[in-house]
Design the sequence.
């Protein structure tokens, strides 16, 4: 790992400016909708892949890079790196590719280029958060042959819903959804400027419609009871 050590020493400063590069709620929502998943499902996948702590918040890292096992080049354990900027991440990734590494997970959704060698033309483009999300969407599309969300999560990580490790991963995604993504959704699901995306408008309309329908139903029942008891 000497090829990486020198690069990491150059990138020792910590600013966490990359947090502003994490895609918005509506972008997660749009991607999830195309695979019958909620925004927080996709966000939880991102947390399972690249989540780390920034102060008191657990968030995905758009520039995360990980190395998987590959004895052909002496990579005998999993290692992860969290560069502070896209420039730093590109420098590390280029060194890895030049050194012959292929079992690499890239970006927020940790798109693995060994499992998906043709997913993009330029692997460094996966360090763009939206390109990374689009590449992950291609993997999810393939995994949507499974019906349950848990099986889709297992497939995303291990390629097969029947994998024991894949199911363990799926359980972690569900835990992250309850523990972190639920609060993230509450904080980010509605725009602060009052300007709604189409997906946000549809979601709010459905929520309000079901709420009012339930209220109307209760009122109708109350009226019916009143009529019967008079």
Sequence:
């Amino acid at each position: 790992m000497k090829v990486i050590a020198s690069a990491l020493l150059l990138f020792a400063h910590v600013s966490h400016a990359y947090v502003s590069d994490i895609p918005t709620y509506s972008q997660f929502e749009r991607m999830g909708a195309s695979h019958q998943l909620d925004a927080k499902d996709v966000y939880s996948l991102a947390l399972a892949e690249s989540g780390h702590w920034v102060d008191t918040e657990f968030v995905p890292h758009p520039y995360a890079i990980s190395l998987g096992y590959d004895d052909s080049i002496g990579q005998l354990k999993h290692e992860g790196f969290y560069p502070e900027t896209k420039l730093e991440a590109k420098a590390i990734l280029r060194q890895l590719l030049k050194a012959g590494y292929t079992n690499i997970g890239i970006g927020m959704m940790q798109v693995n280029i060994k499992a998906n060698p043709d997913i993009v033309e330029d692997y460094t483009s996966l360090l763009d958060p939206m390109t990374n999300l689009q590449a992950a969407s291609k993997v999810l599309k393939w995994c949507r042959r499974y019906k349950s969300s848990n099986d889709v999560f297992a497939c995303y990580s291990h390629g097969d819903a029947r994998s024991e490790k894949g199911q363990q991963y799926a359980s972690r995604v569900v835990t992250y959804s309850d523990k972190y993504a639920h609060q993230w959704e509450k904080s980010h699901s509605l725009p602060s400027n009052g300007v709604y995306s189409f997906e946000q408008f549809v979601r709010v309309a459905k929520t309000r419609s079901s709420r009012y329908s339930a209220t109307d139903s209760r009122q109708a029942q109350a009226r019916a009871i009143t009529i019967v008891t008079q």
Q: What stands out?
A: Residues 193-230 form one domain. Strands lie at 52-54, 57-59, 65-67, 79-81, 104-106, 111-112. The first strand starts at residue 52 and ends at 54.
